[in-house]
Amino acid sequence: MDNEPTKPAVQEEMPFAVVQGEPVTVLPNDLYIPPDALEVILEAFAGPLDLLLYLIRRQNLDILDIPIAQITQQYMEYIAMMEELRLEIAAEYLVMAAVLAEIKSRMLLPRVVEAEDEEDPRAELVRRLQEYERFKQAAQDLDTLPRMERDLFTTAAELPEIQRRMVLPDVSLDELLRSFRDVLNRADMFTHHNIEREALSVRERMTLVLSALQEREFVEFGSLFAAREGRLGVVVTFIALLELLKESVIELVQSEPFAAIYVKAADRQLQASS
Amino acid sequence: MNEEMLKSTIEALLLAADRPLSTRNLVELLAGEHESPNHEDVRSALDALGEEWRARGAELVRVASGYRLQVRQTFEPWVARLWEERPPRYSRALLETLALIAYRQPITRAEIEDVRGVSVSSQIVKTLLEREWVQVLGHRDTPGRPAMYGTTRQFLDYFNLKSLDQLPSLVELKDVESMNPELEFDAPQAQDSGAQAAAAGDELH
Amino acid sequence: MNEEMLKSTIEALLLAADRPLSTRNLVELLAGEHESPNHEDVRSALDALGEEWRARGAELVRVASGYRLQVRQTFEPWVARLWEERPPRYSRALLETLALIAYRQPITRAEIEDVRGVSVSSQIVKTLLEREWVQVLGHRDTPGRPAMYGTTRQFLDYFNLKSLDQLPSLVELKDVESMNPELEFDAPQAQDSGAQAAAAGDELH
How much is the pLDDT for A266? Predict the structure, then answer.
């Protein structure tokens, strides 16, 4: 936490590193500080633009007023220091050194008589420095925003005992029908069955009859027919019963002639005895 | 630190902590340079907090290692939903099995395997029975007494059918084109309602 | 579900969730078989909750992806004591990269490197992606098809923001055209003439 009151930024050099709690604004010329501390300082620069900005800001200069020769010289001193410490110098630092040297040499050349439209050789560098500084600032601003874990904390209460529930997948009818079509295509069933009108109502009735037989051992034959279903319903039920009989799934039983006919599941006896 | 402030600070600590806090923990955490609340203060603040949380989404409970706020068991059904995983999709094999049971019921497993050309895993049958889309209608009176499967009332309800008749017939099914127009009709509609939902979402902001 | 019950249930959900919940999330979570509260209901319950939490240890805040109960910042000094570990610090390189992505999205790595003047380490990109602050938005249709990065809702949530609009605004760029003539090599003179040049610049405008 930074408890220091904020001072006007302009009047002070920006510390570019903090070593053991002490802000460091100027690199000492003699190497009294241990080399690894210096290493920390030098590594604190986020790149050549950052180093250049530091050199400019250290003297309270405006970016638009870069004394290029001086800055170049200071920049090269830093590079030399890094080399001395055998720090791995990112290639970008060397590229920047070359850029600075080039600008410097162009500035030393006598200007061609008042060439109005000729751009200042520093212009491109200044643009880059400004752009970089904007985002350097933005990063600092971002860092001061209150954020989770550091300034803000979420709340959480212990959870109750949670039962794991199975969430069941959804299926659309369309999906189901496609699956069926696929399986029929594969089984080449269409060729065999396309004549037969699949009477699903019969199939359904077969299921209903069997369901009824699950509840009761004997179901009276007549009770399976409902007059309100009309002729068609009666026929469907009758066909369903015939189909079930044919498949030996049900049996019809009659204790004596003209007595009531009962339907029972063909496997009932076995089931009971097993 | 006055009483109200002490209560709110303890509440903040309990809400932020990922473990129960004992009165001793709290006394330590609250120790300040000037006024440090003692055990008594903390305890009476906890009592007051417990009272305040009596009718809320969580309650102040005391466990072995201290106090914690705990979501009330009553809310478990809703809270559990926060961690519900998106359900996996059913396999092709399962859907084909289901379709065959729907169209050819009563049908045995052997008959399904016959048509599909591959064996039907017990897991598939179990899943369909558990989902209550399929039931055992009885056993065929043939060697091995295989179970016969059929669909249930729940199956019809789930797919919003009044009866099996409402499933397309084999002939209709064969005609691929007859399925497509319906899909094409659905698509733009779906997009539409998506846009509507998005618009509604915007309004809420 | 009556109003009181709805309020407590939402409170329970907010306390149980490990992420902010939007009104849409809440409507879905609260959907029941009989009565399902709608957006209106949820919103007014949230308003009421916000009011109730006004003088407590936490507050109801809205961030990009929804609502969360958050410990009031006043209590930060106490709450921070709960954890021995210091909160994570992020390097300048990471923060600069993040700032560029936030302000300039969609942006490629090369564009970030262009502004920063150094290469962006893969570790930084990886960290940003892993924290889910940054996402790949797509690929630029140029050679190498570089990934374009943008920030996520989680990024906004983490920094307590509702939208990117709420980020501090960027510093204005100065016009390079107003650049002062080259100043000579010795520093004090440079500073001096710099001030003069600035004054001169003013006159010209």
Answer: 79
Q: Best interface-test mutation with B: which of A150, A172, A203, A213 has the largest number of B CBs within 10 A?
A: A203
When mean pLDDT is compared across B7-21, B130-144, C15-29, the lowest value belongs to B130-144
Taken in order of first residue, the domains within chain B and their CATH numbers are 3-83+188-192 (1.10.10.10), 92-184 (1.10.10.10)
| Long-range contacts of residues B121-124, Cβ cutoff 8 Å, at least 24 apart | B121/B93, B124/B91, B124/B93, B124/B94, B124/B97
Are B12 and C79 an interchain contact pair (Cβ–Cβ within 8 Å)?
yes
- Whether the CB-CB separation of B75 and A156 falls below 8 Å is answered with no
Alpha carbon distance C108, A79 (integer Å): 29
- Among B6, B60, B75, B84, the strongest candidate for a mutation testing the C interface, having the largest count of C CBs within 10 A, is B75
Q: In 10 A of CB C188, how many CB atoms? A: 8
**Per-residue pLDDT reduced to its tens digit, B32-67:** 877 789 999 999 999 999 999 998 999 999 998 899
Complex ipTM more than 0.90, yes or no: no
Residue C159's pLDDT is 95
Global confidence as pTM? 0.66
For C126-184, give the DSSP string.
HHHHHTTSEEEEEE-SSTT--EEEEE-HHHHHHTT-SSGGGSPPPPPPPPGGGPPPP--
Listed residue (A148, B7, A154) closest to C20, CA to CA: A154
CA distance C125 to C136: 10
Q: In angstroms, what CA-CA distances link C161 with A142, A156, B144, C56?
A: 11, 20, 68, 22
CB-CB under 8 Å, B81 with C15: no
| Confidence band of C192 (pLDDT split at 50, 70, 90) | very low
| Minimum CA–CA partner of B59 in chain C | C12
Residues of C in Cβ contact (< 8 Å) with B82: 13, 16-17, 29
